[in-house]
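Archive entry: two folds, one per protein. Generate the first.
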Amino acid sequence: MESHIVKILAITPVTHNVRQFTVEKPAGYTFVPGQATEVAINKPGWEEERRPFTFTSLTSWDQLEFTIKIYDDHNSVTHELGLLKAGDELILHDVWGTIHYNGEGVFIAGGAGVTPFIAILRDLQQKGQLGSNQLICSNKTLADIILKDEFEAMLGPRFINTLTAQEVPGYDHHTIDERYLKEKIRNFNQHFYICGPDPMVQQLKAILVKLAGNDALVTVEI
């Protein structure tokens, strides 16, 4: 199995608990936007603790980038990642497929589930192919929205946010359910991409398969 030890070049805060890790890119290392790899920390006791993270960089970039939510409530890999500094090392493994872009549609994300969509949408923007793609994000609070400014600049009004634990003027305050989807989406004969907590993904997949009438139009993270 392929593995690479890479140095962390920079760590940048994105939100209060999300950080971007910019790391070295091994020679010849390629991936498709939406793909992921298993990452471990190159420190004693952590080398075999692998966790899947999606690339948020593009293949054309000179470095790799991961956008990772840090959980500090238990002794986890992400907690340990939150303690790392530039110069520390990660271990990367094989690239594997998660969500692949199949055509224009609606991306639906719960919290950090937006990460597979970052590289996909950046890639489409670079190619001038953003088209009419929409991004609907559900977060608990305004402070939890990942890359808010970038998505607003990229998608304008097609970047829709709903906050479940906070009421803020200009933002929806609603769980993403069938009624909400019918309010926000006019055409269900298009592609849908869902990523987030498992219960949310399974619930929305069932709703969208019913509304679209075609399960081939609904792509979820596997």
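Generate the second and append.
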Amino acid sequence: MQRFFSNKKDIKVLDLTKCNVTKGSLYHHFPNGKEELLIDCLHFLNEVITLDIVDIFERYPTTLEATNSMIEKLIVNLETEGTITGYTFSSMVSEMATLSDPVRKACAELYAKIQGIYFKKLMEDGYSKELASNIALMITASIEGAMMLCLAETSAKPLKVISQLLPNKLKEF
């Protein structure tokens, strides 16, 4: 077995024999090793996560409704599957982004894409460009932070709190 990613809570091991892949073949496609493989995974996550968010945001007329729907989906996933790890990559960012500028940039691109989805909807809601940008950052940080707390606490409470407070925050602006 070859270890490629690890985080303190859950060690991920890629068993190349189960994949019917040799180390040579893997490194042929990823000649720069683990970092290149991680960046490719982040790009894949970028597509998967943002497609899901875009789908939700296109179905609802306002940012508030779309955000609440997205948070509700995360809560349901956590309560039924016991995890939301497919939707957050904060643990990878915290562990890997300081080690490599290309990894940090790949993570920043994903966050920027997510914020862009929120920004676009906020602009449609009539917020100014500057305010929409600031609120998009706040939503991104709040949801990412809440997901990390949910995983740490094994509870959906942080996401539920965010979904209750967000409407009031948006009305303040």
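Annotation attached to the second fold: Residues 1-13 have pLDDT under 50 and may be disordered. The chain has seven helices and two strands.
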